[in-house]
């Protein structure tokens, strides 16, 4: 995994922790949904890689 991806996940973890500590459920939900969407994009790219002809 590249450093850029690792840093992205670290930032997501920090934002989620902060929202949890501040009891901001809506923001935490938004962060989690965004993380799941990003994970799905990454996984779908691995499953169906685009080919150029």
Automatic annotation (TrEMBL):
The organism sits in which domain of life? Bacteria
Q: What protein name applies here?
A: Uncharacterized protein
